[in-house]
Amino acid sequence: MSSSPLHDRGQVPTLGPLIRHVEYSFLAVTALVVCARFYARARIVYSIGADDWCILFACMGLFITIGLHIKMTYLGMGKHSYDQVPSQTKERFIDGGMARLIYMPTSALIRISTLLFVRRLSPHRFVHYSTIILIVTCIFAAFSICVILLFRCIPVYVFFLPVENRPSNTRCYGSEPAICYAIPIVSVVLDFMVWLVPVVTVYRMSSLGWQKKLILIGVLGMGLLASIAAVIEVGVVASFFQDIPWGGGKMSLWVCVELGMGIIAASMPSLYPLVKMGVKRSRQAANEKFRSSSGNTPKFMGEGRGMRMDGLELPDLHAGPANRKFESSQEALHTVDEMTIHYDEC
Fold this sequence. Notes:
The chain has helices at 5-8, 16-44, 50-73, 86-121, 125-151, 176-203, 210-220, 223-240, 244-267, 272-294, 329-345, and strands at 153-154, 171-172, 307-309, 312-314. It is 70% helix and 3% strand. The strands form 2 sheets. A two-stranded antiparallel ribbon has the order 1-2. The protein has a two-stranded antiparallel sheet with strand order 3-4. By secondary structure, the chain is an all-alpha fold. The protein contains 11 helices and 4 strands; from the N terminus they run αααααββαααααββα. α4 runs parallel beside α6 and α6 packs antiparallel against α8. A hairpin with a 2-residue loop joins β3 and β4 (312-314).
């Protein structure tokens, strides 16, 4: 094992703690977001679609990837080559090979979930055909890259072995750096294409105002944050082969960020019913608190028999053929509450 001034001083740098902290954080946040998504779909919308199941399987892929990454940090990933223990290298390469095979199907499931959501959102023919084409493209890209990774070298099992431990009769086709560059580049291109479809869909919705269109485009555009992580991965590949354990640590960190941000961004639109229900309940709680503190019928803005509440013109509660009178203030409050709930639902 070669030495360096940093190693001689006993100050061995490692990315292990940083990798574990970041990936544990994404593990917790994505689990919370996906649970909230399924709660909103099952208990509020009463409908769980194919896009939800795709996100669930993608979340499982992310959790397996995080587990492999964390295990690899205890086997030397994130340290420099001169700090490696030779007996741990083989096991680390097996785990790394499994993580590489899981990455493309997981990212493909995230994109497919987004496309299925957009397809359900709009009946336009453009959206129907473009989403089908992109779904097929994502499946084909994931399958092709997995096949190339596995069968690039003969015999196949050498994919899980370090180069120095491979048998002498190993035959490999293509360049390993070229494949390492191709994978994040393909991810960036597919992410941009998948983001473009919902943007066009929202833009063509004539029923939405520009303010709501910008909000929707911003929410759906959060998926581009995952693309930024994939772009950074391309830069990491440039120095990856100079120090494979150290470069592998940086690569695993950005892979986790990419997949985690993709799952969170794809789940944001599905959380809208949950947010809407929370806002409605908070309003009702505020009204109850106001009534309990005042003890009387709230005073509304406006003069005469017509009343105004929160910008809504209310009818005259005493008008009508029977010239209705309320027997108590509680009855009047109950009537106003029903009208307020109806206004919120509209």
